[in-house]
Amino acid sequence: MLDGLQKRLASALKKIRGVTRLSEADVDAVLGEVRTGFLEADVHFRVTKDFLARVRERCLRGEVVSSLSPEQHIVKILSEELAQILGGESRELDLASAPPVVILMVGLQGSGKTTSSAKLARLLKSKGRRPALVSVDVQRPAAMEQLRALGTREDVPVLDSSPTQKPIDIAREALKSANNKNCDTLIVDTAGRLQVDAALMQELKELRDLLKPKETLLVIDAMMGQQAVEVAEGFDREIGLSGAILSKLDGDARGGAALSLVAVTGKPIKFIGTGERPTDFEVFHPDRIASRLLDMGDFMSLLEKAQEVISEDDAVKAGEKLLKADFSFEDFLDQMKMISKMGSFGGLLKMLPGMGALKDQLEQVDTDKEMKRVEAMIQSMTHQERRNPDVLNGGRKARIAKGSGMAVSEVNSFVKRFLDARKMMRQMGKMGGLMKGLGKMGTGANASAPNAASAGTAWAQNPGLPFGRRSGGKGFGRKF
Known about the structure:
This protein is α/β, with parallel strands linked by helices and 480 residues long. It folds into three domains: 3-85, SRP54, nucleotide-binding domain (Four Helix Bundle (Hemerythrin (Met), subunit A)), CATH 1.20.120; 101-294, P-loop containing nucleotide triphosphate hydrolases (Rossmann fold); 300-461, 434 Repressor (Amino-terminal Domain). Helices cover 55% and strands 8% of the residues. A seven-stranded mixed beta sheet has the order 2-3-1-4-5-6-7, with helices on both faces. Helix 1 packs antiparallel against helix 2 and helix 9 (227-238) runs parallel beside helix 10 (257-265). The longest helix is centred in the N-terminal third of the chain and has 17 residues, at 24-40. The model is unreliable at 438-480 (pLDDT under 50).
């Protein structure tokens, strides 16, 4: 997500590393790099100009906190200004209405409306709501089948619709059906076009007037760049928008729409799609995105993901086993499965501070594929071997290699690294602090913050776990 801009910001801050006092030339050197990063990310030129002017004015105003270095001072200003142009604060959906509350999903063809609709339904269901889905896209019959398949996967009811019906008739019947099924939220996936046109807008106006949606969300493709602003302005002018969902942020290094949309249109981004998994869908927090851009990590989002899949008892038990070095292959497999539920391993790593420097190494390795390889080796072991790795000898390793389709050398390498890591865990109280931190997370932001810091310290200082590093400490790879 915005990887190119993240690199530019890191490069900009290097220019003042070690500087004891900021000069005007220092500030201009930093902002020159930031300007290049914004333009490469396809941020709207008006947003870029205003942002640079505000940052420059604040940097030269002389409001330097004595406890901060010049670099920290600029990071603080950049973080605050980035969060500001991203919207300042997260905006929740307005669901305070008599059920079923209607959420109208609009956007151009191929923007990701259908996938985002299913992901939003999943998220709302996890929060205790009873959503239903319906497609009124008669222009693309496959959209109805796609939504039905996605809804079935997430165990969310998908209301009946047919390409032979009119969109307005489908919507009218869907309202009645949602009421009958006791659904409190109706997410309506609408048709799209290759561009904004009169026919599409007329159809959406009719749906809006009938359904009276509490939320009209524009699904916008991050790869659109500056065109995203024009599209958003067109939809808002014709039908009125309450916010946006930025999709496919994982598929484009630019993603400048995130920095342009709010500042130019005044419409908040409420969610972002960061991958193909159902879990790759997040509430948009401007301050957290700003933190990620500055490579300072995003512990709160990481801990919220962990909170969804890791219970307090499981976290504490895992921490105790780690501290006692009583960690078996079965425990390792359980941890891997919990991590996979949180999202892609590479995506989780990027939420840790300083991981931007390892981005190129992470991209060279399909971490999800590597987890499957490790799982195949562990599943090829007997129960005794999983619980007691010390019994593994040459013959057993050869059988495991054959059963998992790996080379014996790969099994040897993985087992060695596992045993080395287990031995090292005796001296790693910080890792135990991480697991306890995950287990004792509070429900609010303030309650979670101290544990976020302790958890982050352990993860940042031991980024190789659970996979380890290649010999010589050079990055991630298949040689476990």
